[in-house]
Amino acid sequence: MPEKQIPNPYGKLGGIEHRQKVTEVALEVEKRGLFARLEYLIHFISGRKRFVDVAGINKNSLIPEEYHQIGKQTNKRRPVKRERDVIDEIYIEKGIKPQFHAYNGIEQNEEQSN
Amino acid sequence: MKSSQINLYITLEDTLEIEKYLVQQSIFCIPQPILSPVSFLEKPIIEIQSKAYRPDIILLKKDYLSLLKFHFIDSEKHYLINISESPVIEFWFPLIQKQDEKLLCSRFYYTKDILDIANKTEIPKPTDFLQIAEDLFHWLKKTFKNAKLPGYEGYLVSQRAAAWVKETGGTLVKW
After folding, report:
1. Whole-prediction pTM value?
2. Closest CA in chain A for residue B33
3. Which of A49, A53, B99, B102 is the most exposed place for a label (fewest CB within 10 A)?
4. Is B3 in contact with A12 (Cβ distance < 8 A)?
């Protein structure tokens, strides 16, 4: 019997490199005097939801003032399409543009298809 | 990294119920930040809420003290517990901003595995820790019946939080 393929075996926070980058970004956020919150839930008006990898929360208002998305980049050092979509979606909805941090690596096929 | 979280609106009275459950389960609460990784405080949630600590409390069983991992934040000269790599549950407690009657969202969050850098893999956290966390989440959902307020789908809104909105005209802050 063929082994069942799991679409995302590492869960929402991704693989090992992704996870290490998440920790690195969260620490940077803390060093700048914000509270870093991992896998931060954002609900959209449409009812859909997204988890941002790291949110930087203002210590006084406790409102997020930064969002950080960690993912792969293309040859041209742009976020891959799925990450660009997430970034755009959050920006349109929340008015805060998530900062992108690449943990890889280049996705060749992705770049060729763009 | 696999993880689990519950985002919920609860009141301070609800927190007292949570505190009771934690005491029964011998789970203790550590306020952050921590000044030394070898000696830190254990405090009731209510006390943590009333003092100038961070809003993220760490829930921990004493059996796991030796498994705790820390981050040192040099600019702030303090330590934080590394939630991803330690068998702990993070709890962002409820806060009411009195001046404009706003109740902020609380969260329980834990990760289910830790990073094994040497073998480039992730290994599950201790089975009994995962069971404790799962039991807590089950208890929360059972104890705080969701008032299902329109517009708050995806959040658990406790009956007391819903009553607070009705009585005070306050708002539940959505991010």
Report:
1. 0.89
2. A35
3. B99
4. yes
